[in-house]
Write a structure and sequence with these properties.
6 helices
Amino acid sequence: MAVFTTWELVAVSQSGPPTTFDPVLIASCLRQIADRCNVDFERVSSQPLAEVLQGETEKFGAAVESISRSWSKQNPELAYEIAFLSVSVKLLIYVVKKTSFVIRPNQLTDVINGNRQVRNYIEARGGWENLDR
């Protein structure tokens, strides 16, 4: 999706100030991770997801957290952090297609950057370019 290329995503390096990464690289990485998501959102029973689908888009982060934790527990071979990233992108796409509500691009960025465990996972692997290795 071309919408990802317009986002400015910043990752904090472990040894210094924030470094701006190539948004095209990050979008590509997120798309590849999202392709792993096989969650059928139509069958998900989640109060935060129901609220997002009713227009409470500020609940997007809670929906991602709830669904990714559940999916990760059902698939122990799947790291929680990868489940979180995968669900966040796929859920964004699902909500945009399913509803007329506007999800701001920075909501996805805020959800990812706001999860310390996911941020640490990305940093520990040396950044987005090394995430899938």
